[in-house]
Amino acid sequence: MGLNEKPLSTLHEKSSYSLDDFAVPTGREEQWRFTPLSRLKGLHNGAAEVTGQVVTQAFTPAGVNAEWVSRDDARVGKAYAPVDRVSAQAYNSFEKALVVTVPKEAVPAEPIQIEVRGGGVEGAAYGHIVVKVEPMAEAVVVIDHQGSALYADNIEFVVGDGATLKVISLQDWADDAVHVSHHHAQLAKDATFRGFVVTLGGDLVRLSPSVAYTAPGGDADLSGIYFVDAGQHLEHRLLVDHSQPNCKSYVDYRGALQGEDAHAVWIGDVIIRVEAEGTDTYELNRNLILTDGARADSVPNLEILTGEVAGAGHASASGRLDDEHIFYLQARGIPYDEARRLVIRGFLGQLVEKISVPELRERVLAKVEAELEK
After folding, report:
1. Rounded to 5, what percent of the chain is helix, strand, coil?
2. Any residues with CB less than 8 A from the CB of 50 and at least 6 apart, and which?
3. Are the CB atoms for 296 and 255 separated by under 8 Å?
């Protein structure tokens, strides 16, 4: 399958399953200008040998089906076509795709657990996951990344009519890991999607969550937190493509940065097409820069092609801790270090509380505490 002739927008010009349709990035392109290509170790140009060891396992509750299929399975690539070179490389390089299916009207009692474990960075590995939630079903999916890896993958979330899918993706990689991933959610009529991203580990992590609607009534909420340490590059590039009337989207990502050359990148693109009347959307990104030498790049983009919208807005802010907040706590006898931790915990904790799995929520809070102790 070749180039998609219909451009996604002026910001996202093409999609294709063919690697040849994407030039090797040079770093001068808009979609690659913030990413240090040399640290991708060949994921972007095909130089990485496909000898990496990444093991993916699915643990499903009763009634949920998980199977490994070949790339010619009709469910693979149906909802998403790659939009850049690394994504296309991953699509053309995986051996088997994991397909998880939640049957019609099913409501599993437990979350679906997908574990991705890396075994080293000596060679590249590629993956593909499809999560299909059939009409009127409800499910929670946890995708947990750990270990060392040089890894690129694509994940498709297909949410049927009136269905609800909640996804928590945890990037808890080892310090040397490199991960480039696209997460695409396709929403049918009156479907609900709640995506939560937690990015803490890795040397370089670049995630690109996106949402598309196939019928009216879709409702998407994309949230995320990240904590960037010295030398880390954590990048999140979001796209919400409103192409159907009367759909909603809300985006809220928050990050904290500390240490020399800690670098966070957040790009938020929302498109409201001519036919998407009645759209209600808002996107927000906030960054706390805790030390000198850290850098946050935050670029919200809102492209509106119709005047008939219910609401549309965006905001971005990056700055230091608020001295007034610290002073307020110190005035009540709380030492500076503890006051600082309380403010940061409150800043990130407002989003962490949205994680619907209690044990995972506690794990993330513990990870944040560990970051604050560094």
Report:
1. 15, 45, 40
2. 93, 123, 124, 125, 126
3. yes
Cα distances (angstroms) measured from residue 225 to each of 135, 221, 298, 357? 30, 14, 14, 16
Half-sphere exposure of 186 (CA within 13 A, CB side): 18
Give backbone dihedrals phi and psi of 346, rounded to 5 degrees, phi first. -65, -40
**CA 159 – CA 212 distance, rounded (Å):** 11
153's tokens: 């993958």
Query: In whole angstroms, what is the distance from residue 273 CA to residue 277 CA?
Result: 8
pTM listed for this prediction: 0.94
Residue 22 tokens read as 């994407």
Closest to 263 measured CA to CA, from 305, 227, 311? 227
Q: Give the C-alpha separation, 138 to 153, whole Å.
A: 25
Check: CB of residue 203 under 8 Å from CB of residue 231. Answer: yes
The tens place of each residue's pLDDT in the chain, 374 residues long, gives 444 434 445 556 689 999 999 999 999 999 999 999 999 999 999 999 999 999 999 999 999 999 999 999 999 999 999 999 999 999 999 999 999 999 999 999 999 999 999 999 999 999 999 999 999 999 999 999 999 999 999 999 999 999 999 999 999 999 999 999 999 999 999 999 999 999 999 999 999 999 999 999 999 999 999 999 999 999 999 999 999 999 999 999 999 999 999 999 999 999 999 999 999 999 999 999 999 999 999 999 999 999 899 999 999 998 887 777 777 677 878 887 778 888 888 889 889 999 989 999 999 999 988 888 87
Cβ atoms of residues 234 and 200 within 8 Å: no
